[in-house]
Amino acid sequence: MATKAGTTKTKTAKKRDSIDAFIALDEAVDDLRQALERANLEEAQKALGIVEQMTHATAPPLTVQEVTRELGISRPTVHKWIDKGLLTVCAQAPLRVDFARAQEVRRQVRRLRAAHGDRARLVRALEAWADADLVRRDDVRTGVREALDGDTVDMPPLD
Known about the structure:
With about 160 residues, the chain is mainly α. The protein has seven helices and three strands, in the order ααβααββααα.
């Protein structure tokens, strides 16, 4: 597609522009949230929460390459973090990662990198964060509650 200036913008460049816009918006929301938390303005936090939900609901999924660039990690690390549940796959062939989850992880990585230089400690902290995030899910809490109440079903061996 030709622009008025006579230059061409590829589909990939347009998509990258769109993703960059969403990332910038998400970072602005995060910065505003931190500033508002210091002032303790509850109504403003609620409004920002709505903006964030809207941003994440309309954001495009990210490719593995885009995730590597945004998080500053390698492709194998992206795949390991998907396997561990740190990143969420929202489409296959080609693999796409949920934008909102990638941004949550990016914020955690940024904070942890600022506080700790040790790579192994960073991974352990991210795994603990993912476990805590998992426990907040209603379906997981229900499953744990049912298991603790003895409401289980015998499963055949996996062989």
